[in-house]
Amino acid sequence: MTERGRGAGTGPEGEIAVRAGARTGPEGEIAVQAGAGTVVRKVARVVLLDPDDRVLLLHGHEPDDPGLSWWFTPGGGLEGDETREKAALRELAEETGITDVDLGPVLWTRHCSFPFDGRRWDQDEWYYLARTRRTDAAPGPQTLTELETRSLSGLRWWTSAELSAARETVYPTRLAELLRTLLDEGPPPAPVVLAPEIV
């Protein structure tokens, strides 16, 4: 779930290679020691669109400071040897309760690094396009980790116009622009590499 990473070797599809010394992270995902003590999480995220082209975002906050909040796409770290596609669908189901989706291509990739829950998180994120036929409110979280329970406060569907006008923090920071381009032009022919976000 965590939102707001690259230093290890990458595989043929850009995945971070798991080397000897890998360990399990706070949410069960494989974490990779990547020099200088940096741990890089492999993360799969979902840009979920409904039939009205609204995007579903989660509202998160710092566990000990609910006033420090942001909106972000569903997703989280890979568990064990699962693929990014399986992680995207699992995380979507756990965080939103939505399972009836058509998972599409990877739209964007990015490296991000941010402080959260008293430590620094470095993530290598892939954003998948997904469509659902649902138009009603999402049912809500189904299976949350202890950290997610302390740091998630809701979810909602956003139109492109609402996202463009939002004054709240949204990650990735260019999501409004990226969504508008996606809706106007369709998915890119190859994943777009977004500029790193270091908070």
Task: Please explain how this structure is put together.
The longest helix is centred in the middle third of the chain and has 13 residues, at 84-96. It is globular and about 40 Å long. With 199 residues, the chain is α/β, with parallel strands linked by helices. The chain has four helices and twelve strands. A hairpin with a 5-residue loop joins strand 2 (30-33) and strand 3. 18% of the residues lie in helices and 40% in strands. Strands 1, 2, 3, 6, 7, 8, 11 and 12 form an eight-stranded mixed beta sheet that branches. Mean pLDDT is 79; it is low at 4-35.
Q: Rough shape? A: globular
Percentage of residues in strands: 35-45%
Number of strands: 12
Our Rg estimate from Cα atoms comes to 16 Å
- What is the helix/strand order? EEEEEEHEEHEHEHEE
Write the layout of secondary structure elements.
Blueprint: E1 23-24, E2 30-33, E3 39-49, E4 55-62, E5 65-72, E6 75-77, H1 84-96, E7 101-116, E8 119-132, H2 146-151, E9 152-158, H3 160-165, E10 170-171, H4 175-185, E11 192-193, E12 197-198
Parallel strand pairs: 3-8, 5-10, 7-11, 7-12
Antiparallel strand pairs: 1-2, 2-3, 3-6, 4-5, 4-9, 7-8
Short description:
The chain has helices at residues 84-96, 146-151, 160-165, 175-185, and strands at 23-24, 30-33, 39-49, 55-62, 65-72, 75-77, 101-116, 119-132, 152-158, 170-171, 192-193, 197-198. With 199 residues, it is an alpha/beta fold. Residues 4-35 have low confidence and may be disordered.
Question: Could you list some keywords that capture this structure?
Answer:
single chain, 199 residues, alpha/beta, four-stranded mixed β-sheet, 12 strands
